[in-house]
């Protein structure tokens, strides 16, 4: 798969840009701050409808503009798809595929698949669990776009359940204070609390349904990633201890019952029941996929907090390479994007990474200076200066 044309309107620093892309390697080279990452970020956005740099859409729209438009013409097995995304911060985004509007932007997911490597990936190893959950969920969506819906449903239910729990916690505190002053208030408040509990049961069943689906998919995904990550890590850091992954969940799972959806639903339901008292006290949902983590280990030690800078980099790259292998095995080479990564790597890792990515159908690289692009990855080149990209090779 490859992008053969990218067109931007008011995206980041670009009032407009038209960029024709060839198969194979293309490097965007230019001084820092001149707009290289903005270009590849736009391509990543078409694939995932999110940015690898920011959590919200607002910074993607050019300062002073109302909306941004990103268009990508994607070719896969000789078939073309034109994907157009209109980014409207604070309002619903819109998408068109082959010039026809789709009901929801997420229907345009899956037409372009990318694997993006960036300095921000170090957070996969050093950062909070939310970074690793996002890595897993983004990969789930890339492999099967319907997971965008599962994730959105889970997040929505979680938010509503948390609102209810917060109300319940506040009511309880009010009741305790009230009870001290006036016994009658307690009776009034407890009638309200009964409503809360029955509403909570309804939210529990939704949370269990979507949560178990997410949990099952993440656990399967981690099993698929384990050997691929270990292999990629061993290639990048042959002298280091072996890399391993483990999905860690607060949901209590018995070891011998398997991992079917039904079993996970039961387990999540039971864990929620167990946590309910504490949840009512604290006003927040304490178990479920939103609290889980992907544990990364190097030999006996956790990578987080123990791995050296070089090992952390290798682990982050290994996770991305494993994702690339999985997507490729599903069918169709994803577009590889390497944003400013070669400058960060030592000679060995640079060469290994270059060798691994060189055969991909399309590789897009950003670098501050031409020397940061490894010789194995010679190809087309754009100079990016002062917010415009000019093809020079
Ligand atoms: N929403 C925006 N509106 C206008 N300019 C922006 C916006 N977001 C980022 N920029 C500008 O884009 C530039 C950074 O571009 P970037 O692609 O990250 O540079 P690099 O070439 O180092 O990768 C900065 O000068 C920044 O001010
Ligand atoms: Mg950059």
UniProtKB/TrEMBL annotation:
Localization (cell): Cytoplasm
Residues annotated as binding ATP are: 30-37
Q: Where is the RecF/RecN/SMC N-terminal domain?
A: 5-367
List the InterPro entries hit by this protein, alphabetically: DNA-binding_RecF, DNA-binding_RecF_CS, P-loop_NTPase, RecF/RecN/SMC_N, RecF_2
Record-linked SUPFAM superfamilies? P-loop containing nucleoside triphosphate hydrolases
Its main localization is: cytoplasm
Q: Does the keyword Ion transport apply?
A: no
Where are the membrane-spanning stretches?
Answer: none
Q: Does the keyword DNA damage apply?
A: yes
| Keywords assigned | ATP-binding, Cytoplasm, DNA damage, DNA repair, DNA replication, DNA-binding, Nucleotide-binding, SOS response
Q: Which PANTHER family match?
A: DNA REPLICATION AND REPAIR PROTEIN RECF
User: What does it do?
Assistant: The RecF protein is involved in DNA metabolism; it is required for DNA replication and normal SOS inducibility. RecF binds preferentially to single-stranded, linear DNA. It also seems to bind ATP.
Q: Which family does it belong to?
A: Belongs to the RecF family.
- According to UniProt, the name of this protein is DNA replication and repair protein RecF
């Amino acid at each position: 798969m490859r992008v053969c044309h990218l067109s931007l309107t008011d995206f980041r620093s670009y009032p407009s840009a038209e960029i024709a892309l060839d198969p194979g390697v293309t490097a965007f080279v230019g001084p820092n701050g001149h707009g290289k990452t903005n270009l590849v970020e736009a391509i990543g956005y078409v694939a995932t409808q999110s940015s690898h740099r920011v959590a919200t859409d607002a910074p993607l729209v050019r300062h002073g503009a109302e909306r941004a438009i990103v268009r990508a013409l994607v070719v896969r097995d000789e078939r073309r798809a034109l994907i157009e995304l209109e980014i409207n911060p604070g309002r619903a985004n819109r998408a068109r595929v082959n010039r026809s509007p789709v009901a929801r932007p997420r229907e345009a997911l899956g037409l372009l698949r990318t694997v993006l490597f960036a300095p921000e990936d170090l957070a996969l190893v050093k950062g909070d669990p939310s970074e690793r959950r996002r890595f897993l969920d983004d990969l789930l969506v890339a492999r099967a776009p319907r997971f965008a819906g599962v994730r959105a449903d889970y997040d929505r239910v979680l938010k509503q359940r948390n609102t209810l729990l917060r109300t319940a916690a506040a009511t309880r505190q009010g009741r305790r204070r009230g009870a001290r002053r006036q016994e009658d208030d307690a009776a009034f408040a407890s009638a309200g609390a009964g409503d809360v509990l029955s509403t909570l049961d309804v939210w529990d069943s939704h949370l269990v349904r979507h949560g178990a689906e997410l949990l099952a998919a993440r656990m399967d995904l981690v099993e698929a990633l384990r050997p691929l990550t270990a292999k990629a890590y061993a290639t990048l850091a042959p002298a280091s201890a072996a890399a391993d992954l483990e999905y860690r969940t607060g949901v209590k799972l018995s070891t011998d019952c398997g991992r079917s959806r039904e079993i996970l639903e039961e387990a999540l339901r039971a864990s929620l029941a167990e946590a309910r008292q504490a949840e009512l006290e604290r006003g927040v949902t304490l178990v479920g996929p939103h609290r889980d983590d992907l544990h990364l280990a190097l030999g006996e030690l956790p990578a987080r907090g123990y791995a050296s800078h070089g090992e952390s980099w290798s682990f982050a790259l290994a996770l991305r390479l494993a994702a690339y292998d999985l997507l490729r095995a599903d069918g169709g080479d994803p577009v590889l994007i390497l944003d400013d990564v070669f400058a960060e790597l030592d000679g060995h890792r640079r060469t290994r990474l270059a060798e691994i990515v060189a055969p991909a159908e399309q590789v897009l690289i950003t670098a501050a200076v031409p020397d940061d692009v490894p010789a194995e990855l010679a190809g087309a080149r754009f100079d990016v200066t002062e917010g415009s990209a000019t093809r020079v090779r």
